Amino acid sequence: MPSSDFSAWLGRTERAMDVLSETLLKRIAATLGQEPPSSGLALPALWHWCFFQDAVPEQSLGADGHPQRGGFLPDTNDRNRMWAGSRIEFIEPLQIGQQATRSSKILSIEEKSGRSGKLLFVTVSHEYAQNGYVRIREQQDIVYREPTPPKLCSDQVIHEGQWQESVTPTPTLLFRYSAATFNGHRIHYDHPYVTDVEGYAGLVVHGPLIATLSLNSFLKANPAARLRTFSFRNLRPLVLPDAFQVGGNITSPGVAELWAGNQSGAAQLARVEFD
């Protein structure tokens, strides 16, 4: 039985290396319906999530498809894991075709009680570097919740944006994004598991995929923008086959508020700072 004392994990670090290969970039671009960028150019925003993934063998995965816990991340027994949000600083773009490193550290572990039971929040910092210089800094919030019925709607209503797009997610989109990010979490591709075990109505759209689509929509509407920071937080899941919208508004010079959701309310809120 795992201990409820997670102090041994505070400050734990790990380091990963990867080459930002054109082969994987072509697959990411095809997944997102974009033209693949060429070697030597800047890696598109948020595509760094597709790299630096540990090639864990199947026998080392947990029942949910994630790597078994108790290594870098704490052992949380049977709690369900979700990506709650991130705060990202874009210093300089990563360059395609070159080697890069990700240095990670567990910054905090905090248990809270919510309407859905106990929640364990783990905040991890990531620094992405090339040629000895940090190019991207990120703090990622991971939440582990006790097995409870998922949240189906949000009190936060989405309104008409200065720009917005409709997205109809498909099983193929979710499968290909899972493949591009080497994400084995079964809620994104295993319909019997996600409905019978975790209690969702259908396959769950990845939080980072929603964030990527939301930021892409902002960049298409504001092509001259130079990203400085991007942050997002997930409010509730989006599930297939329901369509959803991504959009937003520029609320002050250099600041935009983004959202993703549908008739059941907002699912993700985000903020961009840009030049």
Note the main attributes of this structure.
10 strands; 15% helix; ten-stranded antiparallel beta sheet; 4 helices; 275 residues; alpha+beta; single chain
Fold and architecture overview:
- The protein is α+β, with helices and mostly antiparallel strands and 275 residues long.
- The chain is 15% helix and 37% strand.
- The protein is built from four helices and ten strands, in the order βαβββββαααββββ.
- It has a ten-stranded antiparallel β-sheet, with helices on one face.
Gross morphology is globular
Class per helix and strand makeup: alpha+beta
Distance between the termini: 50 Å
Radius of gyration: 18 Å
Number of helices: 4
Spatial order of the strands in the main sheet?
A: 1-3-4-5-2-7-10-9-8-6
Please outline what is shown here.
The chain is an alpha+beta fold. Helix content is 15%, strand content 37%.
